[in-house]
Specification:
42% of the residues lie in helices and 21% in strands. It is α/β, with parallel strands linked by helices and 214 residues long. The protein has a single domain, classed as Rossmann fold (3-Layer(aba) Sandwich).
């Protein structure tokens, strides 16, 4: 899942240190879907730390060049991928667009904000991939504009099996700068959690819907 494991380890440390990711297997969070989760992720916090947001931008750019070459446009996925995507586009000197979570219910009813042209190639920037649903809907919106989606890159991925299957079915490439496996390993190594808590987190990843159900 991650492209560069050394970089992923450094990003894991950043996310844990600023509490962009919280691990609470003994006191789980509840998702909007009702799923109990021992992990909470808010990568928007990285924008408040210049050193971290700069490092993330640099890693996004490096992965883009290594995997896809220079695309025609960068697309941010609402809402967490918008600021990150704009930073990447600025670094690359490329046009930037962003894909809304849903179309406007007024005016032109736009789903994509910014200028996009048929035949362009795009790399999509996301802050977090869980089930993959919102990321793939954004990719579909760009494809409907007769553009080629080279791939999706996120700061973090939960590595849920449902997401892997969804991306495979859609034939969309995706990668993450950091993922669940690397994060849990670093959390143990740096004493954020113990081995027992790590085992509980790994069990959640295998089957989130049934984890914690008694």
């Amino acid at each position: 899942m991650v492209y560069n494991r050394d970089s992923a380890r450094k990003i894991a440390d950043f996310l844990l240190q600023i509490k962009a990711i919280k691990l609470q297997p003994e006191n789980p969070f509840t998702w909007a879907s009702g799923i109990k989760s021992p992990i909470y992720c808010d990568n928007r916090l990285t924008l408040s730390y210049p050193k971290i947001r700069t490092y993330l931008r640099q890693q996004f750019v490096s992965v883009i060049f290594d995997l896809y070459g220079k695309p025609d446009i960068i697309a941010g996925i609402a809402t967490g991928g918008i600021a990150q995507g704009a930073l990447v586009a600025q670094d690359l000197g490329l046009p930037f667009i962003y894909v809304r979570g849903e179309a406007k219910n007024h005016g032109t009813g736009k789903l994509i904000e910014g200028e996009v042209q048929s035949g362009q190639s795009a790399v999509l920037i996301e802050d977090l991939i869980s089930t993959g649903g919102s990321s793939l809907r954004a990719a579909e919106a760009v494809i409907r504009e007769r553009c080629t989606v080279k791939g999706i890159i996120s700061i973090f991925s939960y590595n849920l099996p449902v997401a892997e299957e969804a991306f495979k079915k859609a034939k969309i490439n995706y990668t993450a700068l950091c993922d669940f496996g690397v994060l849990i390993d670093r959390a143990v190594e740096t004493n954020f959690i113990n081995e027992q808590e790590a085992d509980s987190l790994k069990e959640w990843m295998k089957n989130p819907e049934k984890w914690g159900v008694k």
